[in-house]
Request: fold
Amino acid sequence: MNYRIRAWTAPLPAAALAAVIFVSPIHAQQRGQAAPPPTARANAPIDLTGTWVSVVSEDWRIRMITPQKNDFPGIPLNAAARQIAGAWDPAKDEAAGEQCKGYGAPHIMREPGRFRFSWENDNTLRLDIDSGTQTRLFRFGNQPAPAGPRTWQGHSVAAWEPAPPPARGARPNRGNLKVATTQVRPGYIRKNGVPYSENVVVDEFYDIVAGPQGEQWLIVTSKITDSQYLTTPFIFSTQFKKEADGSKFSPTPCSAR
Reply:
């Protein structure tokens, strides 16, 4: 048996007709408005949230303990930086209340410890670091830098980078997070007094890689540019492994030694 839906053809009451005439332009205007852009949280190609622990598979000697004075292999320092690093005295930093000089944005990701990502709001990704009890805020979009003096973590502008099309047969990459940090309070690239200036720029790329057992790895590639103390940009990568929960996250104060 065939059924046919009959169109409604009865005349509308006058009041209902007036409502349609009044509302229709509003609906037309709403249809013409562009939808708001997706938030950074909604548009994330990777999920960084959760707790990650640093895996020190290289540079153990200069990461797990504070290096001795004048021990700074691999960093492209100029003469001025070498002179400052050669005069490093942790007791003076302690006396001046500057025990956190080695925990600024140019070095903090190299500190062994745990790193917890969460969303501060829909367009600000928060990174809490237990070593030195530091917090970084990665701001998406055109959010202005906060007013006030420079801080150890500076002002970080973040953006999602889409992945390029994969090569034939290759596993597709989901994209990564790019972070550019400026307006940092002067401190140390390495905890044994190797300096960076207030003009330092920290460019970072955060990539998630799946391990053979299904575990998740975070690779952070960093580029430190500082024309005052470095002859060329200082580039390095740091590895982290995701933990099941944040039960081992344990904030500790900064230490100059």
In short: The chain has a mean pLDDT of 88. The chain has one domain: 50-165+175-242. The chain has four helices and eleven strands. The two ends are 88 Å apart (CA to CA).
